[in-house]
Amino acid sequence: MRKQIFYDRSIHCIITTSFYAPGVTMKTFIYGLCRHTGIFRLARYVFRKKLLILCYHGISIRDEHSWWPGVFMAEDKFIRRLQLLKQSGCHVLGLQSAVAALKAGTLPDNTVVLTADDGYLNSPQTLVKHCNRFQYPLTIYVTSYYSQNRNPIFNAMVYYMLWKTQKTVLVGEFPFADKPGQQHWDLTGSQQKLLAKQIIDYGRNHCSEEQRRELSENLSTALGLDFSLMDDEGICKLIN
After folding, report:
1. Is the pLDDT assigned to residue 10 strictly greater than 70?
2. Which end of the chain is more exposed for a tag (fewer CB within 10 A), N or C?
3. pLDDT, tens only, 17-52
4. What residues contact 239, with CB distance under 8 A and at least 6 apart?
């Protein structure tokens, strides 16, 4: 499968996607305020002739929605989103059908298209399964690089393992060390993100795909995690 790219200057769409905001509580408060004051109802009326594209990413296998809530969602939350679409009376069409109707001027009011970026490994058992239950078509964009190999996404896996570990210090000899003899790295606060960037930059610039996998395995062991188990479960892996 190839990653599908769709762009047409004649199409005017409202594209919404989830994203991580540090002030989640404030964001929730603002959304609640908009709902109770009727702003959402007004927006729905004003934009009823537009095409609304909802962009999802992945459903958590473990706790990925706690680690990266802008990309991963708990399965029950996704089901509630589909129920909300059903209750609100939205017309859910496939991407190509919706675009064709938009061009022809026959797009029903409040039309919604469901898409999912990246194509995470459990998408058929989660996103596709639940969309089928509601008889909603779903377009999944598949990353071509990972359709040809079975390894977890390197940069995502590095970030996930550094977030997941219980350790506050990484100890060991690693090729990404920027100082001779360095064997200790602080994993607290902002140092964790700096280390993740250092590891990822090294992996991208100096390693083959298999070398990145080996580096991930060694890093996992040093962090007290089980890379083989995460790999088997499909953590940070895409459809191939």
Report:
1. no
2. N
3. 444 444 457 878 888 889 899 998 898 899 899 999
4. 1, 119, 120, 121, 123, 124, 140, 142, 146, 147
Contact 99, 52 (CB under 8 A): no
pLDDT digits 0-9 by tens, 53-108: 999 999 999 999 999 999 999 999 999 999 999 999 999 999 999 999 999 999 99
DSSP for the chain, written as a single string:
--------TT--EEEEE----S-HHHHHHHHHHHHHTTHHHHHHHHTTTSEEEEEE-EE-SSSHHHH-TTTEE-HHHHHHHHHHHHHHT-EE--HHHHHHHHHHT-PPTTEEEEEESS-BTTTIIIIIHHHHHTT--EEEPPPTGGGS--SPPHHHHHHHHHHH---SEEES--TT-SSTT--EEE-STHHHHHHHHHHHHHHHHH--HHHHHHHHHHHHHHTT--HHHHHHHTTT-B--
User: How wide is the angle at C-alpha 119 spanned by C-alphas 156 and 199, nearest 5°?
Assistant: 15
